[in-house]
Amino acid sequence: MSDLAGLYLHIPFCSQRCSYCDFYFVTTEKSHTGFVEALCREIELRGNGYGKREPIETIYFGGGTPSQLAISDLDRIIDSINDAFDTSNVLETTLEINPEDASSDYLNGLRTLGIDRLSVGVQSFFDRDLDFMNRVHDAKLAKQVISDVRKAGFSNFSIDLIFGVPGQPAEYWAANLEIAQSFEVPHLSTYNLTIESATPLKNQVDRGLIKPVSDEDAASQFTFTIDYLRERGYEHYEISSFARPGHRAKHNHKYWSHANYIGCGPSAHSFWWKGLPAERWSNVRNLKKYEALLMQHVAPLEDKEQLGLDTLADEYILLRLRTSDGLNLQELEDRYGVDLLIERVDELAHLEEGGLIQPIRNQIVRLTDLGKTLCDSVTARLLPDSSD
Amino acid sequence: MLTDQSRIRNFCIIAHIDHGKSTLADRLLELTGTLSKRELQEQVLDSMDLERERGITIKSHAIRMNYTASDGLNYVLNLIDTPGHVDFSYEVSRALEACEGAILVVDAAQGIEAQTISNLLMAMELDLEIIPVLNKVDLPGANPDEVAATIENLIGDSADSIGRISAKTGEGVKDLLETIIERIPAPSGDVNAPLKALIFDSVFNTYRGSIVYTRVFEGKLSTREGIRFIATGKECEAEEIGVLRLKMEPVDTLSAGEVGYVIGSIKDVKDTQVGDTITTRINGATEAISGFREVKPMVFSGVYPAVSDEFEELRSSLDKLQLNDAALTFEPETSLALGFGFRVGFLGLLHMEIVQERLDREFGLDIITTVPNVHYKVHQTDDTWIGVENPSKMPSVGDISSIHEPFVKAEIITPSDYIGGMMQLCQERRGLYINTQYLDSKRVSLEYHLPLAEIVFDFYDKLKSISRGYASLDYDYLDYRAGHLVKLDVMINGEPVDALSTIVHRDKAYEMGRKLVKKLRQLIPRQMFDVAIQAAIGSRVISRETVKALRKDVTAKCYGGDISRKRKLLEKQKKGKKRMKQVGSVEVPQEAFLAVLSLED
Ligand SMILES: Nc1nc2c(ncn2[C@@H]2O[C@H](COP(=O)(O)OP(=O)(O)OP(=O)(O)O)[C@@H](O)[C@H]2O)c(=O)[nH]1
Ligand code: SF4
Ligand SMILES: [Mg+2]
What we know:
The complex is a heterodimer. Chain A is of the alpha/beta class. Chain A has helices spanning 33-49, 71-84, 104-113, 127-132, 139-151, 172-182, 200-206, 215-231, 250-256, 287-295, 309-320, 329-336, 340-343, 345-353, 369-373, 375-382, and strands at residues 5-11, 56-63, 92-97, 117-123, 157-163, 187-192, 235-238, 241-243, 261-264, 269-272, 278-283, 301-307, 327-328, 364-365. Helix content of chain A is 40%, strand content 19%. In chain A, helix 1 (33-49) links the parallel strand 1 and strand 2 (56-63). In chain B, the strands form seven sheets. A six-stranded mixed sheet of chain B has the order 2-3-1-4-5-6, with helices on both faces. In chain B, helix 3 (89-97) runs parallel beside helix 4 and helix 7 (311-324) packs across helix 8. Chain B is globular, with a radius of gyration of 27 Å. By secondary structure, chain B is α+β, with helices and mostly antiparallel strands. The termini of chain B are far apart.
């Protein structure tokens, strides 16, 4: 895959709040017109900013819940994208969809818009879990949606499942995986439930109403997942991602390989590296502010940082270690000027001895399954000293 | 103009800790008009930040006052406020050398305590005129009659003649000033003899180099005169001389009997040694004033820069600190775990803590200190003797014929209610009972011979808690005695950690090993692998604990390309790592090297 940019669109609407969620969204917005207008303006603004009609390769509608938007709204957004960017090389257009929105009309509408990949927010096939998480859909719909998606002609799709759910009966997680693979789902994202600050879940934990799952249990569910899915033909190609051959997410790959991406919509993040310093920026996390700024054709910027090579090297290490393709030390030296075999030779030896990384072959460092459970610790040990 | 010797009074204020020396100094400064009301703050002479924060005096502090006495004459008073804590008794002894008299302050509520007696004895040895006063008579709990009677027993002054003051309210302080003029002898050195001036303190100043504080005993010194330091033989010019007010105040001449400061064209801080005698280059004296008794550090500890490339900075900072802290000694050493550093000698744990803090505050150095220990003398099987100040340098068991440790003569003064508890404590600490003496009907002085190693750690805290704060302790080096001592080593994942070795009594080794290993288990964070911590004597492991490996440390998702958040977390972790020391593949936090100090029972 080439290094062409990716485009992310953040759709900040949800019908209700899931208890664990710390994404940016609103649940009270009746009309989407103002937002769609603002988003189209940002797309235009960004398109002008990055050369005229920067070629992009992937488009990703995330949220929030993009499936809250009407087909006509999506149509308008896609038109703006086509105007502002060169979309002739687009390989993948993904949209996150919640089961309750996946009527056959809606799915067909998405197809006609050229959406060719769906990411379905299933999370669990059990009502108990879905209630716990305060999801809108139920277990029946969770299963139904998979056949509906297929029926509508989507052969490339992913479902999200969450493990490490407090109070969940022991057998549920294995059952969730079993159901998913029985549907021959081409791609699975499995997330360890994280107790993020300022979420209803965190509040319940603080008040002692919910006891978080122990690290031991979460780790064993994680390694169970890896074993289980690998045996059934899935590649574990990134910490939280599993794919049948040929079904890896091309858009997410941009994040992990330091390719450029532009995020539009409130709270969206962007990365741009064409000459040093590289830049990361994020948009305002407030819909009203976002709309107001764009009404005045002002970039809805919240934060911008410039990254030198040292910082980029840190990022590259942390990103690549999450992937099964691994951290290429030659690449790290050529592109980032860091020779980890000199800087961290002792650590590399310790980590290999401790069974946390695989023996280095062809200059590539890859985590073992044990290493994956301790990915952040391993990363911390490998970051070079030179940067601060 | 020369100051008339008969109008000079040099005295210091001595007492047990917290009996009110610095507060009394405040009142004297106020009454003599040396400081204006605005300049005055509580314990104004405690000018170091550390002193103010802790509310104790660490350094002696000299200051000059003018006073018109009731006889109508003008006097010059040089006052030296001294610290009360046992670790700093060396400061007191030097201050005493610069004076003809001493005010012995006794808290009328607390009564006589250990440093009341030890400081009194020092002053008596030097034949100083001693003026005892009862302080804090304003307190409801004050018991001046009884305490006065005890003092009478101790020094023979009649109880009625002992002044009663409140340094807080100022009551009785005016009378005390008159007593000072009356009783303390004026200095008597010959102004026309060759110059002899004793350096009783010095300080390093970034702009001016080293500044020495001196008491002129004979002769006189003028600005820009050539001077010589008799012991080091170094010569230079007295660029500035002056007297010590709250700030330094330059004068043209200092003559016999006076106290002041000298700033010379002195480059090397080592050339100005406390205890040395200054004389003039031309027609100088040849013989020095007998200096101070050499001060011997009691405890030793490894001091290492937290960041290894700051070794040279640590060295020069210690050099400068030593100028102001003559009790400090240091020698380079290396540790496998901690790299290059110094073995530093201290007078006690408070001294160690203060040095550590001063290195941090005055020199901006981040340091790691290891567990302090005493100096051992080892008799080896080949009949040679060696000194060991670092436990990891202890010869192997086969080469040792006996290990000798320092003993101290300890005096504990306690209300008689707590005698039982005190005796039990001394017993536990391998003490030998020597004597009991009643100071009055309620207070007792206990004498013990104790291994120094047993009292440097938490003995004082224990003593205070047993006696609800009323007992006090003083000790003095006695001699070396053979003991059943062993070296306790700590291994982390099989690797011995030199900086964690300690010397302990055989009977306590097992318990100590168990506690130490348990403490280390709490201090060492979980890592990616199990960490085995073992305590061993020789090759015999006596205790072990495991820090279980981390089970999970992985961020679920880099949400929507928000990489910054994750990177910042990792970078924070990386910063934290810099403060860890690597032992094999194990990251050990700095606190671990002092674990022995915080063992629970
Ligand atoms: N009530 C009362 N309190 C006093 C008096 N004199 C001192 N104090 C208090 O006793 C405490 C100790 O006083 P300091 O003057 O610091 O004692 P010190 O002897 O200089 O102490 P070190 O220098 O640490 O040995 C302070 O809280 C003072 O306020 C007094 O006459 N009456
Ligand atoms: S998890 Fe998804 S659907 Fe639920 S609140 Fe968050 S963004 Fe909305
Ligand atoms: Mg004081």
